[in-house]
Inverse folding.
């Protein structure tokens, strides 16, 4: 059932919604899903259960879901990396964290199986970061990268750390996991939930094709398209720890400008798709890239949320900057 702000869509609105969805697919943008829990996302936006869906919609479609790092207002923590920073100190942290993770012995679990498979597939990278003597070489080689290549390479390695929830970086990550597989997202949303639970929520958005590797962390395909990585002498991986999850790792979060909406389970109506109301403000000549979001009240919503930080992105070059909320 399609709804906007809790109200059922009319015939004209439904047609407009599906025209927008068709345009997104025609432009070959990458549709992504994130399985989550209302018990997690509502408190992040400072919303109580009685404020769902209307108050939640207002906050969500104004701010968008954020990576876990932005929930905290703590100043720099040990393994945290600023979303705008890619200097030698950041790459030194990356080496130490990858070295620690790839040497770690996990008890028998899905993580252990994933790590064993990764080490077998990605022998060169595993050997490189397993040798502490390569620390200076890594910092030197990454230090020779210029401009956006430093950010691209940083995000490529951070995505690997983010994909393993037992890494040192995971809890302080500015990355947000999504997937191109609805089934995977559905599995995460409904994990450990009862059949009639109203707690699961599946967020739906897209990554514009020209922004892959800029609004999202690059995979090996994007990395090779954006730079001549083989000439750097840096180790690369082809597949992360859980390739079947079909992950797309977003930087900062899922922007409201690229949100279709979310699915939740209503106890009376069954599965409901709450759509981003900005979709209904589009015109026939909408380019299908991003939605026009009025964020003039952003800081008001931010003060009422649990987010202690936020980020901005320049329209011209998609440069990220990180900020602390002023209480």
């Amino acid at each position: 059932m399609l709804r906007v702000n809790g109200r059922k869509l009319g015939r004209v609105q439904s047609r407009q919604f599906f025209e927008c969805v068709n345009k997104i697919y025609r432009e070959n943008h990458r549709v992504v899903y994130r399985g989550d829990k209302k018990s997690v996302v509502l408190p992040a936006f400072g919303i109580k259960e009685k404020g769902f869906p209307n108050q939640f919609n207002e906050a969500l479609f104004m701010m968008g879901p954020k990576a876990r790092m932005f929930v905290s207002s703590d100043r720099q923590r040990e393994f945290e990396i600023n979303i705008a920073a890619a200097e030698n100190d950041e790459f030194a942290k990356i080496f130490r964290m990858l070295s620690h993770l790839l040497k770690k012995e996990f008890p028998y679990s899905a993580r252990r199986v994933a790590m064993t498979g990764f080490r077998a597939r990605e022998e060169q990278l595993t050997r490189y970061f397993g040798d502490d003597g390569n620390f200076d070489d890594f910092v030197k080689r990454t230090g020779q990268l210029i401009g956006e290549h430093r950010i691209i390479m940083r995000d490529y390695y951070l995505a690997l750390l983010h994909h393993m929830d037992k890494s040192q970086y995971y809890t302080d990550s500015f990355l947000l996991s999504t997937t191109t597989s609805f089934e995977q997202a559905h599995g995460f949303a409904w994990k450990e939930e009862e059949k009639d639970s109203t707690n699961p929520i599946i967020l739906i958005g897209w990554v514009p094709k020209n922004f892959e590797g800029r609004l999202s962390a690059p995979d090996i395909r994007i990395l090779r398209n954006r730079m001549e990585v083989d000439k750097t002498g840096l180790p690369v991986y082809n597949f992360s720890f859980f390739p079947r999850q079909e992950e797309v790792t977003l930087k900062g979060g899922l922007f409201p400008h690229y949100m279709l909406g979310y699915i939740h389970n209503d106890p009376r109506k069954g599965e409901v798709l709450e759509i981003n109301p900005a979709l209904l403000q589009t015109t026939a000549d909408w380019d299908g890239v991003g939605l026009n979001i009025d964020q003039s009240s952003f800081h008001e919503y931010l003060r009422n949320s649990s987010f202690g930080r936020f980020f901005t992105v320049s329209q011209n070059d998609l440069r990220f900057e990180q900020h602390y909320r002023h209480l």
The radius of gyration is 20 Å.
